[in-house]
Write a structure and sequence with these properties.
Structural class: mainly alpha
Number of helices: 17
Distance between the termini: 18 Å
Helix content: over 70%
Number of strands: 0
Number of domains: 2
Radius of gyration: 21 Å
Mean pLDDT: 86
Amino acid sequence: MLKKLLNSSLIKTTGIYTITNIINKAIPFFLLPILTVYLTPNDYGIVSMFAVLLGFFTPFLGLNVHGAVNRKYFDKEKKYADYISTALYILIASSLFILVVIILFSDLISKLTSFPEEYILLVVIAGFGSSIIQITLTLWQVRERAINYGIFQIIQTALNLTITIILVVNLDFGWLGRVSGQVIAISIFASLGMFVIIKREKLTFTWNKEYAKDILRFGVPLIPHTLGMFLITMTDRIFITNMVGISDTGIYTVGFQIGMIIGVLQDSFNRAWMPYLFKNLKQNSNLVKYKIVKITYVYFVLILSTALILSAVAPFIVKVFIGDAFEGSIVYVLWISLGFAFNGMYKMVGGVIFYEKRTQLLSIVTFTTALLNIIFNYLLIRMNGSVGAAQATSLAFFVSFILTWILASKVHFMPWNILKYRKEEN
């Protein structure tokens, strides 16, 4: 089985995604030594708050239309181009709505996040552009065009960081240079993405009422789910900013970026895993499901082991690559690494729920977990200081994984008890 697995399209595609994702994420990682010299912890805190705002508003702005486009592909819809066109119309409408909301509440948003009010509109620009890019990447993902996917991401990141270096190092723009680098690169590649979508899908920009209903039925129930994931990964920074200080948020963010190496690895595998999972579940074979479960358990062991190894080498990474002002980031790496490992495990078991289109169940689990995470953050930060935020993140991801596994076992049969299944087969 192992030989077949190593030669499978899943592993080959995962390898491409992993390599391109590592290159994509490694570029900003190796930029850390530069940014930690030219940006203060306070600057890093403001940059982190931009990411928080982007993460919060994107679920409402994007309405998960890229997820609907992903799932619809496997239905082999004849008018797939019309489906994509309808998704784009929905994206434009939702973006305009969020623009109005942000304008009306910009003062409150700024006070809560310590992000300058006059630059908050950059969030909408980045959110809309990111959603276009997600649709572009999704269309390559479902067709297993991993190389196109990776090259597009890598060049975008390279442009992002080139602009950042010019603005931060050469022009001394500080935190604004880092944020502007992101927004400019996203805007350029969103434009390229639209060109690719229009040309590749031969769009006629047709509005289809039934398709709109299908997209909203898929995407809207996922808003609490996506928002919940945001609250799990971003609430920590809001709490640290308000309970400890924005400089500590900057130090925490550096530790989070190191721990996010596990997030890169599990995300790479998941991008190859979902098309593989959907295609194999279509066969409705218990033997195939047994194979899926075995792969899942091997994955659990590997991702947890990798998280522990990363936390062990974190002091070396910080010593070599990061400035002394951010040495305190080491204490966060273990908890963040484990958190992303649990998140990867959640994605493995949650795939069958996406397959069954029971996305409202994931929303309930994730949003419930997110609310618990708010409590975890408050209590653990009070008890342990800012490291409590990392502990809360890890705990929340673990709870999300367990609850999702329980739900997945109820909506779609999978032989999770492989020992029992083997005995029955024999």
